[in-house]
């Protein structure tokens, strides 16, 4: 029984590490994209961001509202904003 519990714990820790690594790689790729396009990239949680777009129903729901991985710039003379 001890070995099964140990194996499950190791698997859970491994999955947590794998997920964190994938998130880190994604953020690095988004940062490279922003640099290439001359845009700005903010990887952290921005709670003030949702106040700019409170007119959007989805951003008025829930109690823990924030945006992360924010890409902002101009493409073909149009402002672009992408976020998680």
What does this structure look like?
The chain is of the alpha+beta class and 84 residues long. It is 48% helix and 17% strand. It is built from two helices and three strands. It has helices spanning 2-37, 49-52, and strands at 40-42, 70-75, 78-82. Strands 1-2-3 form a three-stranded antiparallel β-sheet, covered by helices on one side. It is flat, with a radius of gyration of 18 Å.
Q: Concise description?
A:
This protein is of the alpha+beta class and 84 residues long.
Average pLDDT across residues?
89
- Write the element-wise H/E pattern from the N-terminal end onward: HEHEE
Number of strands: 3
Q: Give the radius of gyration.
A: 18 Å
The DSSP helix count reads 2
Oligomer: single chain
Structural class: alpha+beta
N-to-C span: 41 Å
What global shape is seen? Answer: flat
Work out the helicity level: 40-55%
> Which regions have little confidence, pLDDT < 50, spanning 5+ residues?
none
Strand count, sense and barrel status of the largest sheet are:
3 strands, antiparallel
What is the strand content?
A: 15-25%
As laid out across the biggest beta sheet, the strand order is 1-2-3
């Amino acid at each position: 029984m001890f070995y099964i519990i140990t194996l499950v714990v190791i698997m859970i820790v491994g999955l947590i590490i794998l997920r964190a690594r994938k998130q880190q790689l994604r953020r690095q790729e988004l940062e490279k994209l922003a640099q290439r396009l001359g845009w700005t990239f903010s990887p952290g949680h921005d709670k003030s961001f949702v106040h700019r777009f409170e007119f959007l129903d989805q951003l008025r729901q829930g109690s823990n509202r924030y945006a992360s991985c924010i890409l902002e710039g101009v493409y073909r003379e149009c402002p672009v904003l992408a976020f998680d």
